[in-house]
Write a structure and sequence with these properties.
Blueprint: E1 6-10, H1 24-74, H2 82-99, H3 110-131, H4 139-167, E2 175-181, H5 186-194, E3 200-206, H6 209-213, E4 223-225, H7 230-237, E5 241-245, H8 255-263, E6 269-274, E7 284-289, E8 292-297, H9 304-339, E9 345-351, E10 357-363, H10 370-380, H11 382-391, H12 402-410, H13 417-422, E11 427-429, H14 439-442, H15 446-449, E12 455-457, H16 470-482, H17 486-502
Helix pairs in contact: 1-2, 1-4, 2-3, 3-4, 3-17, 10-11
């Protein structure tokens, strides 16, 4: 995920509808694609959509069967026929997803896919309850449907994520794409390769030869040709996606831009990448200003109503989680107390919303004379001092106790921050709280950062954490503030569980 990249999916027209503004030569190519490429395009859609189709069907079907098995063991027998209900639910899930246009699901952000999946699951079980309302004669029947609904909410995103991860390894899955660029854009190819789960496979670069080689040369096999050759290349290789990248897109009409616009008529899907403005990229709408295309952005976290909703969710989740976490915190606090001298808990002064300071609580993971140990350690090694100045982190930190290393690796040392969340000083999800010395590192982004409540976990934690640079951390924080929604929070919370279990980026 990129904090500054903004993507917009355009040109929803069909491949079989060539515009009338093209030259006769280009029109001939489009006609050939229409005649010879329609079946190939359909096959690409089918191959890409089928795994996600199966994932949705399987998740709901298994959810109903599991719920039936659990309820049958606990309470009286269920009157509803489980296989019939499972088929109804799974079929409805696929139908609702089709109406949402969730298949083949290429180019969609994981947060949007999570949102669509939850909405589709809710609609599916609403239809299921309506169709079987007269047959719900017992508590067991209602319990089975409720249990199936909860399990489906968990299994649908899990199965879909697993399907994407598995299929992304194969060349038959997803859509090949051409990258149009007015300059060397090998970096875009690398980004697309690193995000194969999106279902877009970059084949190579379409550009004017002189612009490709004027900077650092790209690999010869990545340069496919000039813009006027794009339609023929797309037809030959069965390519129906185009990715446009390059700063020249925001400038006036150039020969290069005119050539690209003419060739884009043969692509049913176009993905536009732009770094011109650091604006929200998840929640935006297309608009029109007297014939001029426009985009409406909304930073939801700047709205008071959104902050109140986020606060209500924090309280509900924290009160529920506290029932399980308080005994664990007590055990860990005892372990800290028994293994090193000093208190079990530690509070550090941090900056919160609007620059207001507060004490962020943690289980103590350092020795009591940590500052003296750190100063001595940094004075003895210039490379370590540079590492500290860049990230305020050390991979081999002499201040950390033995039990502290375990707590940090599993992020269990941050469990007491539930108290900060209940007090309103922190949120479950948000930018990590910083200290005064870190403000200069945020530069112009600090004003944006200070508008929101810091979080226990956030986008930085699930995106590499300590393996990222501080500049990337700032970009993640800015991206989160601009693109906040409850769906993004839910996505980050679910990903946090995975990151904690795998100890990804923690030290």
């Amino acid at each position: 995920m990129s904090g500054s990249a903004q993507t917009t999916i355009l040109n929803e027209h069909a491949a079989s509808s060539p515009p009338t503004t093209l030259s006769p030569e280009c029109g001939t190519v489009v006609g050939e694609i229409k005649l010879r490429g329609s079946f190939r395009y359909f096959c690409q859609i089918a191959l890409t959509a089928l795994p996600l189709f199966i994932a949705d069907f399987t998740a709901v079907f298994v959810g109903v069967c599991l719920s039936y098995g659990i309820v049958s063991l606990v309470v009286e027998s269920v009157a509803l026929q489980p296989l019939l209900i499972a088929l109804q639910a799974a079929g409805s899930m696929v139908l609702v997803s089709l109406l949402q246009r969730s298949y083949p699901g290429c180019g969609i952000h994981p947060v949007i896919e999570l949102k669509n999946g939850v909405i589709a699951t809710c609609a599916t079980f609403a239809l299921l309850v309506g169709a079987n309302f007269t047959r719900l004669d017992s508590f067991a029947d209602a319990s089975m449907l409720l249990g199936a609904f909860v399990l489906a909410l968990l299994l649908v995103p899990l199965c879909k994520s697993l399907a994407r991860s598995l299929c992304a390894r194969f060349s038959w899955w997803g859509f090949p794409a051409l990258v149009f660029s007015s300059a060397d854009d090998e970096g875009v190819l690398k980004k697309l390769a690193a995000n194969r789960r999106m279902g877009i496979r970059a084949i190579g670069i379409i550009a004017e030869p002189h612009s490709v080689w004027q900077q650092e040369p790209v690999e010869a096999d990545l340069f496919l040709g000039a813009p006027e050759e794009a339609a023929a290349i797309a037809d030959e290789r069965g390519i129906y996606w185009a990715v446009i990248s390059g700063p020249d897109l925001s400038t006036g009409q150039t020969d290069w831009q005119q050539n690209v616009e003419a060739q884009l008529a043969v692509f049913p899907r176009v993905l536009v990448l732009s770094n011109d403005f650091e604006m929200p990229s998840l929640w935006r709408q297309s608009a029109d200003l007297n014939g001029t295309p426009a985009t409406l952005f909304e930073s939801k976290l700047m709205l008071r109503s959104a902050r109140l909703l986020k606060r209500a969710c924090d309280l509900v989740i924290c009160l529920f989680v506290s029932l399980f976490c308080l005994p664990l915190i007590a055990v860990l606090a005892l372990a800290v107390k028994c293994t090193s001298a000093g208190p079990a808990f530690y509070a550090h002064r941090r900056l919160g919303r609007n620059g207001k300071s507060f004490r962020a609580w943690k289980l103590r993971s350092m020795y009591m004379n940590a500052d003296q140990l750190l100063a001595k350690y940094l004075d003895s090694d210039a490379s370590l001092k540079k590492e500290w100045e860049l990230t305020h982190k050390l991979k081999s930190d002499p201040r950390i106790t033995r039990i502290g290393r375990l707590l940090r690796a599993t992020s269990l040392d941050e469990l007491p921050q539930i108290w900060n969340v209940l007090r309103g000083e922190m949120s479950l999800v948000g930018p990590r709280p910083i200290v005064d010395e870190e403000i200069p590192k945020y530069r112009d982004k600090y004003q944006l950062y200070s508008k929101v409540t810091p979080g226990v976990t956030g986008l930085w934690q699930i995106s590499g954490r300590n393996h990222t640079t501080y500049e990337e951390r700032v970009a993640y924080d800015a991206y989160y503030v601009r693109n906040w929604s409850l769906w993004l929070d839910l996505y980050i919370l679910t990903r946090t569980i995975k990151v904690v279990l795998l100890r990804d980026g923690a030290f």
